[in-house]
Amino acid sequence: MALTVSEFERAYKEEVLQLFAESWQTASLDQQFAALASLVKRYSASDWSQTKQAVDHNNEKQIYYFSIEFLPGRMLATNLLNLGILTTVERAFKEMGLNFKRVLGMEVDPGLGNGGLGRLASSFLDAMASIGINGNGNGLRYQTGLFKQDFLNGYQVELPDDWLRNGYVWETRKIERAVVVRFGGEVNLLPSADGRLLAQYRHTENVLAVPYDIPQIGYRNGHVNTMRLWQAEPPAMGQPLTVAQREEISAISQSLYPDDSTEAGRRLRLRQEYFLVSAGLQSIVRHYRKTHQDFTQFAQTVAVHINDTHPAMAIPELMRLLLDEVRLDWDSAWAITVQVMSYTNHTLLQEALETWSIDLFAPLLPRIYQIIQEIDHRFRSAYHDADPALIDSIAPLGHNMVRMAYLAVWGSHAVNGVAALHTRLLEESVLSGWYQLVPERFSNQTNGITLRRWVQLANRPLAKLLDKTIGSDWRRSPLAIEALQPFADQPKFLHKLAAAKLKNKRSLAAYVKRTVGLSIATDAMFDVQIKRLHAYKRQLLHLLRIIDQYQTLKAGLAGGPKYVHIFAAKAAPGYYYAKEIIKAINATADLINHDPEVNQQLQVAFLPNYSVSLAERIIAAADVSEQISLAGKEASGTSNMKLMATGAVTLATMDGANIEIYDAVGAANMMTFGLSSEQVLQHQRNFDYSARDLFERDPRIHRIVSALIDGTIPGIEVEGQDIYQSLIQYNDEYFVLADLKAYLDAGARLDELYLRPEAWGKMVVANLAASGRFSSDLTVAGYARDIWHVTPENQVNRHEL
Ligand code: OAK
């Protein structure tokens, strides 16, 4: 949009006055933030309304991205950037003598997600708006997020994440669009006038689903989509409810991933999942009916994407609506449902494949269960001449369970994995039966990231340098960054690149000092591992390398570059082993950071409360990106992409999207090591891996691992023992020791390169130049083409900006 500095200043001052009856000079930082955000929301309002109108008017297809998690991060800077007024507003704030950065820092991160799945969902919403696809998010408005992480004596402490306490400026409550979601009760199928059975519900528990809409502003294209979050409330009318009943209702949108170790917790999760899909689909169907007489056009105008299996009940729920409310026959309803639905799998971990016991499921969702039974029955009949053992092993119902992934594949026209290796492994193992049956449904769509957020906003020094060096096309067309490659040979440019990195390191160092009181050396190599804490991601392997470095220094054998190891990771509250690793890393950090014999060369910082905002600070400052999961376990990873796209060199196993990064940058520009997924599988099949043998035969491994139990690291008597036993006694399920030697060698090769700034700079440039292909704009364009069958407007301006 066109806006001058003085126009903005005038509007902003007026906004502060109107909202708070305060002058702009006396407004608090919170008020400054609220006024600016509210103004931005106003600036986007007419585009938002026009986008919605155009969709209806032109009968355009809409994508609905159903996800139990979203992780949008702060939105103010993104919205300013996407509206095209970021620099204008910055200038105005400077003129007014206000601190723009601190105002941005007042925004809370929405507590709507937990990890990669949620962040990907948000990056797709940003991408859909930015390439001009009508794509909406459908999620839950959790009152409290996962948790706020702190450390007490090195242990993870979980504090409530009360992110909505001061309200959320970007949302609008739409009570007039509320719908009712029904649970429990009885369903009777009664004959009706149209000769078909009619489902009649009695004694149901009715929950009001109230939508809150948040604008998702496209990048300088006038396109504004909607992220809709549902809140569960007691209905205003009907039977009076007891306090306990009301609490049961609000619990549905109270918190993300309630503890599922109890029956009550599992029931609550199931209620959340159904609430999400039922509310979303009812509103979609209702909206469609406003402009259409019949459902012949439904699949041409609606696509529903199921983000992992949490929303897979969208399949029986759409069937329910089409059968019971629209009154279509089964075959027509099923044909529409399959055309509408598509499903992405995000994990190969067996334990993460969702199944629900029928004993829990059927009483809570009686009609949905009936429909799943019919789906299962018809699936089995359709393949009556196929191998019965195969059909039995992949049917939606089996072993007294509803098997969500199988239901999702059967009810969708398209299924995809999130990196090439992941998709192949889905086809060969987790979903192999399905791949035999319906191979044409499978495709790969490698994940992507929002380069606007990670480079344009979170790495301003690099962004500026790119503009000066290759012009600003890369901001709109991600692949244009390839133009940087020739600069790999220009020492002057490499110098500037290193200077930009140093600036980012200084900002991060100031933050580390402020938050954890540690002064980190900015002339050190920043070696970063940031992701959820999980055994398969192998933060433990990284820790063992740090112990090796410590022991080397203590033995007086220095020589490599200075190191600052940076971790950030939350462990799931009930994941005891992951919490032990956190404690072990913190204890090692404590030992190293306080030892004057080593702390000039080696430091370790574990930053609490990993979040999108913290990632923005860390990533821009990183030199090395640790992507060291056991091959075959990480579906894709996306921090690997973010880190390479802001100039870090990747130290990685051949897992997930690391392989595609390797293909993009070439062997000379990435350091890979370790077992391949095939080799891991071989060992697992042959039972020929012995961690104890390695431990006993290799003195270096022996020395490193022994540090966990011999008192070298104070304060980890219990944790050290447990971790040691997981490696030696329980034979190291994640092949940490199998990969340790190769990892240390790869690290040493990286050290040598880091000590040669020109060689290092070349690698950085190669990574930057290859990063464009990991833009989620391109990923989403792939989904649009292969799965949703829509054509992006592709940065065609609705209005001249
Ligand atoms: C979360 C809950 C259930 C199943 C999967 C997840 C999840 O977060 N998976 C992660 O998704 C990311 C986005 O596709 C991938 O990059 C990660 O590899 C994967 O672990």
TrEMBL record:
Gene3D superfamilies: Glycogen Phosphorylase B. Coiled coil: none annotated. Its cofactor is pyridoxal 5'-phosphate. The modification N6-(pyridoxal phosphate)lysine is found at residue 642. It comes from the Bacteria. Its EC number is 2.4.1.1. The keyword 4Fe-4S does not apply. GO terms for molecular function: glycogen phosphorylase activity; pyridoxal phosphate binding. It is an enzyme of class 2 (transferase). GO terms for cellular component: cytoplasm. One of its GO terms (biological process) is glycogen catabolic process. It holds the Pfam family Phosphorylase. Keywords: Allosteric enzyme, Carbohydrate metabolism, Glycosyltransferase, Pyridoxal phosphate, Transferase. The keyword Amino-acid biosynthesis does not apply. It catalyses: [(1->4)-alpha-D-glucosyl](n) + phosphate = [(1->4)-alpha-D-glucosyl](n-1) + alpha-D-glucose 1-phosphate. Belongs to the glycogen phosphorylase family. Allosteric enzyme that catalyzes the rate-limiting step in glycogen catabolism, the phosphorolytic cleavage of glycogen to produce glucose-1-phosphate, and plays a central role in maintaining cellular and organismal glucose homeostasis. This is Alpha-1,4 glucan phosphorylase.
